[in-house]
Amino acid sequence: MTGPEMAGWVRLHPLSPLVRFGRSVGLLLVVVAPRLLWGGDRTGSWIEAAILGLGVVGGVVFWLVTRWRVHDGELQIETGFLRRQSIRVPLRRVQAIDVVAPLVGRLLGMAEVRVEVAGRGSGKSRLAYLHRDEAWAVRARLLALAHGLPEQTPAPAEQPLLVMSNGRLVASAALGVPAVLLVAMTVAVVVVIAGGNSPVLLVALPSVLPVLVGIGSLTVRRVVAEFGLTVAEAPDGLRLRSGLLQTRAETIPLGRVQAVRWIEPLTWRPFGWCRLEVDVARQRSGRRGDEGDSARVTRALLPVGSREQARWLLARVLPGASECPPLGSAPPWRAMVLAPLSWWALRAWHDERFVVTRCGRLWWTTVLVPLNKAQSVRWRQGPVHRQLRLATIEIDTAGRNWRAVARCRDATEADELLALLPTLAISATGLPPSGSLTPG
Asked: What separation in angstroms does the CA of 141 have from each of 144, 284, 334, 343?
């Protein structure tokens, strides 16, 4: 696609409606067609087929009324039949550009380009769908324009850093908290059945079965989403590719990382395993449904690996940061009244560049926040906290997933942190941060 073509309006791939409504078509083939062939309730089947057909027609209409272009430093998308929408995405504010290929799209050689911008907006800045090669070419051109380069500039070369072991991924999912709960509940159901408590089973099964299905799907979804993860490093950031059914390729600009989370579940600690996740500034939508499945999957730099691998990746993302708590990072003894089961795991510390907190009972969670990304510092104290002379400090970022929370700190220490952290945040950036640094 040449420069003039990029400046003119372009339609999506003609097969986009088929990919968009691939699940509906599959449902039509799997559910409705056999009922028609086997002489079932033809009236109900024809109604379902008509509804699905209307959905497909809607997809075709959506394709006809949707067009896009790159003009004046913006990605411009126009769509809508009855209610027209014109979306303008300033490329200078782009946080990430991902290429996502669902299963039907992979079979047809198509992919979706998702452009994510920090701040509050539409959440529909996506091109679904383009030919796979065209999607990668569009992504390279948008990234070049976002960095102020000529649009013909190719994507920079990358250096592979890590290839995830799928066997370890499956094993970690089997040892995860959801899987352990699933096994425990399944064993309980089997014991009830073996004991002949049929009345109890008939009452409990309708409530337990959806829970079992939900827990199982959570574990399976994580494995499917993170299957075959590869991490590479390029001048524009860390590049992640993963997915078993739906593949996802995304780039995490290192300068836009808002926080890193280090997780150590109890069942992983005997093996020395941990998980490393990253949070970046993301577009916040006014409607939950606008965010799509990008909100459901957390970006994992290391789904499961050794502590040495996690430290090596952490050094790439946040040079100089450490997850090891120093002496004096524990809360006072009186915090045991409020957190009797997790007091021994609570930690909080900081230096001139980072603030780090840890909490959790069976699931240790360490959050590392660069001070130059701090948006606000909040001081909280409930009535019981006041009696125990304790307070909690929360550090917010432009990310949407986590915040650093220093729980149950000495009230004097919390007052000092409230006064000190905003000053350190300003010093870390050299300029006043874009967000506020005031008590919440």
From this structure: 5, 25, 57, 51
